Amino acid sequence: MSEPLLSVDDLHVEIASRERTVHALDGVSLDLAPGEALGVVGESGSGKTMTALSVLGLLPSGGAITRGSVRFDGEDLVAGGEKRLRDVRGNTIGVVFQDPLTSLNPTMTIGAQVAEPLLLHHDISKKEALSRAQDMLGFVGMPQPAERMRNYPHQLSGGMRQRVAIAMALVCEPKLLIADEPTTALDVTTQHQILELIDDLRSRLGMAMILVTHDLGVIANRVDRVAVMYAGKIAERAGVRSLFRAPRHRYTEALFAALPEKAVVGATELWTIPGLPPNLAVEQHGCRFAARCAFATDVCRAEEPPLTGDDHAFACFHPVPLQAADPLDDVVPGEARHTPVVKSGGPLLELTDLRKDFPLSGGPFARSRGTVSAVGGVTLTVQKGETFGMVGESGCGKTTIGRMVAGLEDPTSGSIAFEGQDLATMSRAQRREHRRNIQLMFQDSTAAMDPRMRVGAILREPLVIQGVGDRAEQDRVVGELLDAVGLPRGAVDRYPHEFSGGQRQRLGLARALTLSPDLIVADEPVSALDVSVQAQILNLMRELQRDRELTYLFISHDLAVIRYLADTVGVMYLGKLVECGPADEVYAHPLHPYTRGLLDTVNVPDPEQVDDTRTPLGGETPSAANPPSGCRFRTRCPIAQDICATVEPAATTPLGAGHQVACHFPLVEEGAPAAA
Length: 676
What we know:
Helix content is about 30%, strand content about 20%. It is α/β, with parallel strands linked by helices.
């Protein structure tokens, strides 16, 4: 065995403030061999990011390593101090952060930012550094790297900004790359491209990698070993195949059971982990997972289980038996717990040839330079009581449709019929009367709530605006809403920042329910949540839909979430609805090459499942300011022919009514084109 490139031994990290001290890490130990990829997973607050960033001393204000060592390439970085860490950061260890927009300097050009690490760590001229920066941008697959050198971060797409962040991290050819949630906010195709890029660069440069993520599908396909963290400690550590084949810790087992794919296969509700992680500002006793574990006994609450084992180590007094047939078989009832949503029938929302063009302008006093075709003529129907799932890559127009339905954007043309009345032709006063029946659930629940208002005032505000009831009646409604979303009534006196991400999303759902709407437009409501909290929110949405006869227009780029929640699926591409039908049919028999490509691009949370017939979607999405003629997907389509460039395909139903596709050569038999 070669000497580890990185060795973290008994690492303890504390974060002190005036009010309290949080014991963020408590005795974390791990090794990383040269060229090896280690995945670190766990719920939010488990310590996975803190572990990765402690390697470089990138701790938050008040944070300090109180015990333990971090040896990198034979040298103790903790003992070396800040001066030595500055020499290592961005040089021999590169870092890719979760949000590239906030990690890039908005006042510097892309070229200057990629060249900066070279100028800091190497004796090199500015001209040579810029030349190497341009080469690195080309190396990471940036289109037209010479032109991008002069751009600023706001001029690039999310995927391009992440490529810039990767170029900055790799320009000094480090031995170790730390990637902290590098694809969390990206759609499935951009995520696939970024992960493939990192894999390729790791192989070519011989780098080791620590990949921090809550996406178990990413972990299954991209790393060699996995460390599962919970409440500042490592709960389980094993090779990726061993962990997914036979998880031993009850927490790991519960994380796997909360995956949307599990519920789809078993026709059950998502398994959820009860309770919340422990407060790390309070001294811990016994197993930290005991309060949430169905198998905990007195010994779990009294003693802390040691991390035992070599190749597959776990810290659990009552581990999952190696012979267990399926995770949580002995906990989850055997019968299906998924109660179908009863649709009341009849259309609630009908969009007809809906279009939205945004003007392109060089500034407030400049003339228009054309338009961006965000939505290019969409027709669809949402039935009362159903969940209509809308999927597609970033920029496909799905959020714009949601905003038009909710009245936040006016359509350029077309109609939005809600309960038979066209919202697009109503005056603002008339639309206000209908707005209470259509509510919007935002992606970022933090940004959607005023941080200066208490929760009670936030939830009561729609009632006040609409003049519903007196103060006593409004307080009664707020209390019932908090009960419905599983939050204590005492939450009315707290501010949004005092809640966890999952709790804030519950508040966002409560706010959307305040006026008892018929339709909720949910725009990426679970994209930023880890798998266990995501399961709680999705189950809650299903339960409230049954109880309140709600209809959802659910927008997401997560195909597994849409498959679990949606009755009907609409697939969007560059402003067009290319396929629409019952969820089970669309997933089992996709008719459009774009839908097939999206499904083949998804990271399957199973390292044993290798399908050579999968053809992940490639290429770049064209600009909506100048979309391709004919079929907008033809520039990326593997079966495009001459007619695709000249004639826009009309919607047809090759498999029968209810499953529509807009394609000249629909995939009637999987993988084989057949003339429409």
